[in-house]
């Protein structure tokens, strides 16, 4: 029995997986650095027109790690997060920018965080036009919500990719009320379309 246990332990170690099935070794992961040319855009509508608010560049250098062996519900375990300053949103209209930041409670919760939990497959080897599905947890205005986001891949080189994901979100997902102006004459609709564009480099 002891010999069998030691043998099983050796298998876990050789795969880079801990006894609890959660720990990973660097050899069992792909590591991708998120470049500053990454961006985030939010598209919304009012009862009168549409608007776009954007953060044109990512002012950090974060890393996303994707397991090549360890699975979570059939997908590959991932680690890494994006920290996005809500105060950097620019709606190209001073009043709209101020209203959005107020609605998102930027003073109280200055950052929106996107935590990556899993990828449907490794990023390496995906050709341009290919798709990868991710599971992420978004933390915004003190609330958390888990989403599945499909990213389209554009391959510049084997080590340089662009991932573009578009996901509809609701203000109400995070307990927020869409802003309105002029006594409620102009109302922002509850649904937003969020576009995440990641420029990543294999490291």
Task: Give a written overview of the molecule.
There is one protein chain. The protein has 203 residues and is mostly beta strands. It has one domain: Lipocalin. It has helices at 2-15, 94-103, and strands at 29-34, 39-45, 50-55, 63-72, 75-79, 81-85, 111-119, 131-140, 143-157, 160-170, 180-181, 186-187, 191-202. Strands 1-4-5-7-8-9-10-13 form an eight-stranded antiparallel barrel. The longest helix is centred in the first third of the chain and has 14 residues, at 2-15. The termini are far apart. 22% of the residues are buried. The model is unreliable at 1-21 (pLDDT under 50).
Radius of gyration: 20 Å
Sheet/helix structural class: mainly beta
- CATH architectural type: Beta Barrel
Distance between the termini: 42 Å
Helix-strand sequence: HEEEEEEHEEEEEEE
Low-confidence stretches: 1-21
CATH topology: Lipocalin
Helix content: 10-25%
| Strand composition percent | over 45%
- The CATH class designation is Mainly Beta
* Largest sheet features: 8 strands, antiparallel, barrel
Number of strands: 13
| Number of contiguous helices | 2
**Molecular shape:** elongated
Describe the strand arrangement of the main beta sheet, using strand numbers. Answer: 1-4-5-7-8-9-10-13
